[in-house]
Q: What sequence folds into this?
């Protein structure tokens, strides 16, 4: 069964979250996950859908202003967390080390994890894609191994929010490479929308998608879930 996760980024407060969740009816045959901002997590959990946070800290508690811990998310009924999204790496200083620490803490508290990896355009064009993916994936692998609760999201940074998607062949090759390093489900992320989902999701080694922009609209996210369910 494919996993389709919607990363809402910094969109949708509790009211909009309740409206989306009330209207969202995932089809049979797909696992749908919604990832709202922290303040909207209680409203989302109440809806009964599967809910992940967009980040999680490695400590259980402590002097870490602005952070949220794995036990706090678990207490709320949140099922998992995204870690290491490229926006966290780019704007908020997340590193392979902190991503690994977040992953360890989340899994230890029974949360599932979507750990994001991916190369920049410059890295791809200079022939460093495999090196970058190897370093990022091995940081997580060394910390937790092939854990049942772990999923990797391959998100080429140049394809996130740009409308530019990896070709099916680029996705297939990158997923095969990631799986050769760590044998866990691998989601593709980067401008996935209903128009390109079938082609990407039907590639070997593509176990689902992490979706940003197209996950904000209940109709397009439902359409994506339907496409994945029908494959
Ligand atoms: C993301 O935020 O993980 C993402 C892939 O965004 P988009 O689908 O908008 O490219």
A:
């Amino acid at each position: 069964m494919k996993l389709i996760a919607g990363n809402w980024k910094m969109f949708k407060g509790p009211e909009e979250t309740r409206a989306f969740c009330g209207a969202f009816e995932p089809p049979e045959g797909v696992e749908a996950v919604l990832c709202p901002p922290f303040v909207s997590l209680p409203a989302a959990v109440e809806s009964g859908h599967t809910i992940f946070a967009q980040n999680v800290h490695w400590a259980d508690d402590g002097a870490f202003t602005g952070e949220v811990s794995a036990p706090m998310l678990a207490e709320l009924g949140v099922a998992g967390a995204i870690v290491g999204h490229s926006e966290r790496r780019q704007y908020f200083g997340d590193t392979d080390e902190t991503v690994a620490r977040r992953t360890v803490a989340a899994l230890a508290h029974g949360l599932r994890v979507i750990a994001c990896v991916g190369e920049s355009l410059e890295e791809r064009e200079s022939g460093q894609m495999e090196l970058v993916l190897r370093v990022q994936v091995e940081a997580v692998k060394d910390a937790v191994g092939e854990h049942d609760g772990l999923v990797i999201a391959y998100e080429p940074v140049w394809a996130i929010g740009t409308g530019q998607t990896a070709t099916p062949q680029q996705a297939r090759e990158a997923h095969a490479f990631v799986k050769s390093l760590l044998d866990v489900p691998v989601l593709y992320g980067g401008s996935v929308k209903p128009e390109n989902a079938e082609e990407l999701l039907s590639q070997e080694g593509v176990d689902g998608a992490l979706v940003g922009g197209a996950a904000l609209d209940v109709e397009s996210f439902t359409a994506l879930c339907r496409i994945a369910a029908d494959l």
